[in-house]
Amino acid sequence: MYDVVIIGAGAVGSATARELSRHKGRFLVLEADCDVCSGTTKANSAIVHAGYDAVPESLKAKYNVWGSRVMEALSEELDFPYKKTGSLVVCRKDQDRTELERLLEQGKKNGVEGLSIIERDQIIEMEPQIADEVTCALYAPTAAIICPFGMNIAFAENAADNGVEFAFNSKVTGVKKVGDHFSIKTENSEYQARTVVNAAGVYADIIHNMVSEKKIHITARRGQYELLDKSAAGICSHTIFQLPSKLGKGILVTPTVHGNVLIGPTAEDIPDKEDTETTAYGLSRVEEMSALSIKDIPYRSVITSFAGLRAHEDGGDFIIGEAADCSGFFDAAGIESPGLSSAPAIGADLAMMVAESLSLRENERFNGTRIGILDPKKLSAEDRNTLIKEHPEYGQIICRCESVTAGEIKDAITRTLGARTLDGIKRRTRAGMGRCQAGFCTPRQMELLEKYAGLSPEQVTKSGGDSLLVYGRTK
Ligand SMILES: Cc1cc2nc3c(=O)[nH]c(=O)nc-3n(C[C@H](O)[C@H](O)[C@H](O)COP(=O)(O)OP(=O)(O)OC[C@H]3O[C@@H](n4cnc5c(N)ncnc54)[C@H](O)[C@@H]3O)c2cc1C
Description:
Blueprint: E1 2-7, H1 11-20, E2 27-30, E3 47-48, H2 59-78, E4 82-83, E5 87-92, H3 98-110, E6 116-119, H4 120-126, E7 134-140, E8 144-146, H5 148-161, E9 165-167, E10 172-178, E11 181-186, E12 190-198, H6 204-209, E13 218-228, E14 239-242, E15 252-255, E16 261-264, E17 268-270, H7 280-290, E18 302-313, E19 319-322, E20 329-333, H8 339-358, H9 381-390, E21 397-399, E22 404-405, H10 406-414, H11 422-429, H12 442-453
Parallel strand pairs: 1-2, 1-12, 2-9, 5-14, 12-20
Antiparallel strand pairs: 3-8, 4-8, 5-7, 6-7, 10-11, 11-12, 13-16, 13-17, 13-18, 15-16, 19-20, 21-22
Helix pairs in contact: 1-5, 1-8, 2-8, 10-11, 10-12
Bound molecules: flavin-adenine dinucleotide (FAD).
Flavin-adenine dinucleotide binds at residues 7-13, 30-33, 38-41, 44-47, 49, 171-172, 199-201, 203, 223, 265, 308-310, 335-341.
């Protein structure tokens, strides 16, 4: 019998798992996919929002501002990339600045520090390539960017190092209350738990509705993006939003923590919770709208496009806490944007609610510090030479675009909850994230998966399931 079963190993499920591991107990995370960070957390804008967008008193406002305040310290404790860049919401000539003033007041009510409205002269000093039509902007100095994979993986690794179990390829197909506990069925197993945490992203309504008569409904709201090569890095240094609409925060232009530029997302309600296709129309809209914020964006430098699905619940707010008609069942549902920014706070709050309900005692052996994968590029030339002498694999470049070495990939495969797919390696090390998008390094990565994880080339997949790379030998 587990004390807690968490459904979903995205940012929210993994943050909750890590926070729960501060307590003594048996905890299990069930994940449908073959790795952590396989849902919405892998495809979003990666912004730590300052917190002015959310309606005051809403759960989005509460968890966003809380998450934004703790994120920097957390990134140091768990060793994932974070950069406080600040953000601008820009207003154009043809738009009304009263909306900016409304956002400013809303932000103040939510407790966001340092907000101000700035005029074109100041904007040009901060962003020389700002579009000619921009007249003024809301400046939020506390906004930041992170690596979403880095945060999700760090939470999960640290949770596992503190004793939380993870079961992958374990899609939950049924949850039932049986007396004072829950029976949780997956496609190939069955588990018993005293409590359940539902962190299933776009599927959180399906899981919730298995145990509660108070039904909820989540629509997948797709957002398409284009990612530009690092050569475009100079075009902006802040996250630049346009005025928000009913469907979201609009198309943004932002640097990423790794030195690329990201433009997007669209906002399209779609019937299929798996449909992460990009479309010609969506991407042309991204280009057309981003040009209203920054001029001369080098669209020829686009190296890839992708889409993520927001989990939009009909009520429009996060649903967090114990279900009203099912004690012991805790939801983290409707976690659309600003869910990434809020994940640390949602995880801390949910874990506290669950721990209190079960009267869990403190885990004195909890160690909250995690050391990420060593990146030789961050070392001095002298230290790098010493490292390569001791561990020659750090002198062997596998991914030329991102300069990722065999040493880093070995670490990604062999560490806690290690990578078993090409996407798993990519999200942990950035191998394959560069200009050639893994065109050159795929065979080398497959060799390393064979060497360190014992997977034959015919078993290696891009992202689990039937995403095989080779089908057999021809000679
Ligand atoms: C276009 C877009 C832009 C965004 N931009 C931002 C941003 O800039 N800043 C921000 O703060 N937020 C942003 N968000 C929101 C943020 O990405 C999400 O709120 C957050 O990633 C949600 O995390 P999660 O753990 O709830 O869900 P997920 O990451 O989707 O994790 C849910 C997990 O549950 C698993 N699962 C589902 N069903 C089952 C089942 N039956 N059994 C077992 N496992 C199951 C899935 O496989 C998945 O791994 C954006 C979202 C989108 C789509």
